[in-house]
Hints:
By secondary structure, this protein is α/β, with parallel strands linked by helices. It has helices at residues 15-30, 43-54, 65-69, 86-96, 107-121, 139-150, 156-159, 168-177; strands at residues 2-6, 34-37, 59-64, 79-83, 99-102, 129-132, 162-165. It contains 8 helices and 7 strands; from the N terminus they run E-H-E-H-E-H-E-H-E-H-E-H-H-E-H.
Amino acid sequence: MRVCVFTGASxxxxxxxxAAVAQFGAELARQGNGLVxxxxxxxxxxxxxxxxxxxxxxxxxxxxxxxxxxxxxxxRITDLQVVPDMxxxxxxxxxxxxxxVAMPGGIGTLEExxxxxxxxxxxxxxxxxxxxxxxxxFDHLLAFxxxxxxxxxxxxxxxxxLVTTDDPKALLTALIDAxxxxxxWTVD
Length: 188
């Protein structure tokens, strides 16, 4: 299985985030699974890739040319794929993944999560989606999603698609065991 991970190009201010990301990467490699990610060597992306590589795992990075030009690519990964732009990057990452995980990060991480979650809701893929909720990082986002359900803007079964835990090993196990996501898009 290959897991596509969306995470930050920064390490953030709490060391617990980097520790959890490294633990997830090490567990991914230990179980013989591969990583698909944004191809960077900086921030939590670099921590993740290094942890997978350190465990002997496969790391596929997909990076747009403009970020490669800024010398942000991780040059030691298994396969670095250079694409023309961010749109192609996300599509290429999705094609190569069997599951998706969002970890602590910024607006790019959120944008990637919401796009892949929208694609699932529209029936464009049936792959599991998880959140590594380290130190409650996604608690406010999850509460907002619950509010969208309560207000009738998000179907409860779509909200339930997000497999969420603060334990990296448990998250990986839950993704492997998760049933595929059915087309749940409906018009009220």
